[in-house]
Backbone:
């Protein structure tokens, strides 16, 4: 019945990766999207613990393999559904990370709850390798192919099923696997048959799982998530609901939606007819709202003259306009009202375009905005579009497409955002005609100020690097207290008349002028203001000063940025306001690691930074559970480990390095490709799947070179380092060639940059284990434990390194780790074998820890 076991393994492998991505979707819908590293490290925790246990119990497991496989497979449907059900009961809320230490315990609860089904999946895989050790390569092949299929099949079902029901096809896969394990060989009749007892138990566990899904399967949405607020409005009405890999979309109508993005207070005094109900609220995975602006009656349109987005139109009559991302359509409405000659909108999300253009309710509400002959919507990546259309537009506008400081939940996640980087700003500027203007409007509600300072620093650096002769003459900035700030950059110098016109616009609407060429604005001592903020966090308050606003800080900082003193401001300011770059694309990453002790003393002032605090919390928990994985071998075989200490340090470094290095790169690729593929779900699926398959191929190919495997491992590590260098210096340029390509071609390009290093990354670990099993078997559990423990922690550490120091440092660490690993391979060998690698033992490798998914990926 070998074929039945292999079929069961295939379906379990498909279900395992699908379940991992499904759990990521649960966190995104019910909470926030920062939990990818938690899910990955939880899966690794289950794999690591099961692998170590099977290493200890291989001899006991082998004669009982059929029974264990059946128990694992039959129990799995219920365990998968039960884990989701129990996890929904955990009262975790990242908003309270700054004020409630219990939240760290709740993170730990997720590791335990979801770790159980991942442990069973890994145990099934490991036992299958034990039971079928004579066909190890065939089994390994179908295990990895199944994992690869799982990464894609869940994407297909995301188009077909809402998030709460995505578990159903996963349950179906596990039920099929359980049916295969229920097949046994009847010696009397010389035929296969199903075990009636197994089928009865499977029926019970399957029905139990389905009952949980249909009766208790709702994804619990946090009370502090934005959509929870609108659902409490007495008149809220759901007018649209759709779902797909890009997210779950809800559009609500309510009289309580009164968006006024930067609206001047003077509008109420000067507009004869204020709009009564101009907006609906769009929520993507429960986050928002994005204001969908409805069509206005002629008497109400004057309202748009008092929005900050109207400013560039005062000096650009009838411009050709490019809007970066669609948002809720407000920018298009303003552009049409202000007389734009043509309006191009570049939007990466096909779901967003389909919603505003094709949904009858939304289209009717917006007055069929996107069906206007004046407006052209292009599905694609805005930066790539700008690069392909040089000197094409009079006005390029990015307005209110982020939610920093806006969220009702009181905080925001930390995620990659490539539209505000220095490189992005330079690309936008190249698409401007001579005299054209780049207009950026963002929310400005954080105090002390963070995001606007970071954006100003980024824009001014981009102007300098872009070759502007005198950035001081090409910059204009204004804002509205605790509402929005707007930055204008002209391709050329603002004329005196244009400056006067803009100043009149700002003054007549009671906006705060932050900077204008040849215009004096009130100035405060910037160093004193920064000292006030730092003293507040120090708890000293030694610099009393009369009240000041964010605008005072902006005015002084702009002059320092323009004068080339940005380093001083960046070093002295209490928050991280370094320019945003493609190598560190975190618009919302404001905390400095070296100042964590200061923040901890004033946690109420950084409660909005829960996205960053969540990363730290995940790292702490990952380290705790990683330590548990490391500790198990020490407890289980402490005598053997202590009796033969020689070489133990090298073994620890070798396998700890592999666990950490593999996860650093996997998380980097998921982060970097999320924007390239316009979807973090696509990114996670493709990266995990491709790395699994090609690492397995690397293992299979390298197994044919056992006589020289020391050289093979060293050569592979050098190749890995070379590919990481390419990621540092050539990846962005390579991806830029495909930014405007169709999704299928971008997926292919992503596969091309993942597959080669993944192939070589599949060489050091299995070759090391095989050698260690032949020469130093007493260190085997420790090696496995170190690899598993560092893999668990590595997924969280990668996020922290990327946010704090950028991708180059993360990749540099990876290069150092793999070069060290390549040099350390001989620690796995004994005696003379260390010279060339052991020439024997190929038959015994079936009992080695190849019995489980040996790569530290999931």
Residues:
């Amino acid at each position: 019945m070998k074929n039945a076991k292999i079929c069961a393994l295939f379906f379990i492998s498909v279900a395992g990766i699908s379940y991992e991505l499904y759990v990521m979707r649960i966190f995104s819908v019910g909470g926030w999207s920062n939990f990818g590293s938690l899910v990955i490290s939880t899966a690794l925790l289950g794999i690591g613990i099961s692998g170590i246990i099977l290493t200890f119990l291989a001899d006991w497991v082998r004669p009982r393999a059929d029974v264990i496989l059946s128990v694992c497979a039959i129990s799995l449907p219920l365990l998968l559904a039960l884990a989701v059900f129990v996890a929904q009961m955990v009262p975790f809320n990242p908003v309270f990370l700054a004020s409630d230490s219990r939240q760290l315990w709740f993170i730990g609860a997720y590791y335990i709850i979801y770790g159980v089904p991942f442990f069973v999946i890994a145990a099934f895989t490991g036992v299958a390798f034990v039971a079928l050790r004579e066909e190890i390569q065939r089994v390994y092949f179908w295990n990895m192919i199944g994992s690869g299929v799982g990464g894609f099949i869940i994407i297909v079902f995301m188009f077909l099923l809402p998030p709460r029901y995505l578990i159903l096809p996963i349950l179906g896969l596990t039920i099929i696997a359980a049916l295969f394990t229920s097949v046994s060989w009847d010696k009397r009749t010389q035929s296969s048959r199903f075990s009636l007892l197994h089928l009865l138990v499977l029926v019970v566990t399957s029905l139990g799982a389905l009952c949980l899904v249909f009766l208790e399967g709702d994804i619990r949405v946090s009370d502090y998530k934005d959509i929870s607020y609108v659902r409490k409005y007495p008149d809220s009405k759901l007018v649209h609901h759709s779902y797909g890999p890009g997210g779950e979309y809800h559009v609500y109508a309510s009289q309580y939606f009164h968006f006024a993005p930067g609206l001047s207070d003077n509008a109420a005094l000067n507009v004869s007819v204020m709009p009564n109900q101009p907006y609906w609220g769009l929520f993507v995975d429960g986050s928002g709202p994005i204001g969908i602006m409805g069509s206005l009656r002629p008497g109400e349109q004057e309202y748009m003259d008092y929005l900050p987005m109207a400013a560039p139109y005062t000096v650009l009559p009838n411009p050709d306009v490019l809007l970066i991302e669609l948002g809720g359509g407000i920018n298009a409405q303003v552009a049409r009202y202000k007389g734009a000659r043509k309006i191009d909108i570049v939007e990466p999300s096909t779901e967003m375009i389909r919603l505003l253009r094709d949904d009858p309710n939304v289209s009717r509400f917006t007055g069929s905005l996107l069906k206007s002959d004046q407006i052209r919507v292009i599905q694609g990546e805005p930066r790539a579009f700008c690069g392909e259309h040089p000197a094409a537009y009079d006005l390029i506008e990015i307005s209110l497409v982020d939610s920093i400081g806006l969220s009702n939940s009181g905080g925001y996640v930390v995620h990659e955002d490539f539209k505000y980087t220095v490189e992005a700003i330079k690309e936008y500027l190249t698409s401007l005609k001579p005299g054209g203007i780049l207009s950026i409007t963002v929310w400005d509600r954080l105090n002390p100020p963070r995001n606007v300072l970071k954006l100003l620093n980024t824009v001014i650096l981009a102007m300098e690097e872009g070759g502007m002769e005198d950035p001081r003459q090409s910059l204009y900035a204004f804002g509205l207290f605790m509402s929005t700030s707007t930055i204008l950059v002209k391709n050329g110098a603002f004329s005196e008349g244009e400056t006067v016109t803009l100043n009149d616009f700002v003054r007549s609407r009671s906006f705060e002028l932050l900077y204008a060429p040849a215009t004096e604005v009130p100035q405060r001592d910037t160093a004193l203001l920064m000292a006030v903020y730092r003293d507040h966090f120090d708890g000293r308050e030694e610099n009393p000063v009369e009240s000041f606003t964010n605008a005072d800080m902006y005015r002084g900082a702009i002059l320092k940025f323009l004068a080339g003193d940005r380093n001083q401001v960046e070093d002295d300011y209490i928050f991280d306001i370094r320019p945003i770059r493609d190598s560190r694309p975190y618009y919302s990453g404001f905390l400095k690691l070296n100042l964590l002790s200061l923040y901890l003393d004033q946690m109420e002032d950084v409660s909005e930074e829960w996205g960053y605090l969540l990363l730290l919390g995940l790292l702490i928990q990952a380290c705790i559970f990683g330590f548990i994985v490391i500790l198990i071998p020490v407890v289980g075989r402490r005598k053997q480990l202590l009796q033969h200490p020689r070489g133990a340090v090298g073994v620890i470094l070798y396998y700890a390095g592999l666990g950490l290095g593999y996860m650093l790169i996997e998380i980097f690729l998921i982060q970097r490709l999320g924007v390239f593929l316009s979807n973090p779900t696509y990114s996670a699926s493709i990266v995990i799947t491709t790395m699994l398959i090609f690492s397995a191929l690397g293992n299979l190919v390298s197994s044919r070179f056992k006589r020289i495997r020391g050289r093979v491992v060293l050569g592979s590590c050098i190749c890995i380092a070379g590919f990481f260098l390419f990621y540092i210096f050539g990846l962005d340029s390579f991806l830029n060639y495909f930014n405007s390509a169709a999704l299928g071609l971008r997926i292919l390009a992503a596969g091309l940059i993942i597959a080669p290093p993944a192939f070589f990354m599949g060489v050091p670990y299995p070759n090391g284990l095989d050698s260690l099993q032949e020469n130093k078997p007493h260190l085997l559990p420790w090696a496995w434990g170190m690899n598993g423990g560092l893999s668990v922690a590595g997924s969280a550490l990668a996020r922290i390194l990327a946010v704090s120091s950028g991708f180059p440092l993360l990749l540099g660490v990876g290069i150092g780790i793999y070069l060290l690993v390549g040099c350390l391979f001989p620690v796995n060998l004994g005696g003379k074998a260390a010279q060339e690698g052991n020439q024997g033992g190929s038959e015994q490798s079936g009992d080695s820890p190849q019995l489980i998914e040996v790569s530290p990926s999931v």
